[in-house]
User: Which sequence fits this backbone?
């Protein structure tokens, strides 16, 4: 039975990942990835974020800005199985 549990654990980390950096570093605390079926969330720490285990597909990414910064939305982000999708630096506007 333990091997089955291990296989289930491995299955939860399959997929791709979405990473990026927010500037200013303290301008946001959370990021969301939505593919129309699943909504994934990740924390922004020191300006960096990562959303692991995203299923392959196309996502809309929303960086939730803290006042006085506005939310940033990035559409049509493609995620592939086993690959990291790096969004680079995202500058938040006031």
Assistant:
């Amino acid at each position: 039975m333990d091997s089955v549990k291990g296989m289930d654990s491995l299955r939860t980390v399959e997929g791709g990942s979405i990473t990026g950096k927010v500037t200013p570093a303290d301008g946001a605390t959370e990021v969301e990835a939505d593919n129309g079926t699943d909504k994934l969330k990740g924390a922004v720490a020191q300006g960096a974020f990562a959303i692991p285990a995203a299923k392959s597909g196309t996502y809309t990414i929303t960086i939730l800005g803290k006042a006085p910064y506005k939310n940033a939305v990035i559409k049509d982000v493609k995620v592939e199985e086993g690959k990291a999708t790096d969004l680079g630096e995202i500058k938040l506007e006031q």
Observations:
- The domain at 2-91 is CATH 2.60.40.1120 (Immunoglobulin-like).
- Residues 1 and 7 are 10 Å apart (CA to CA).
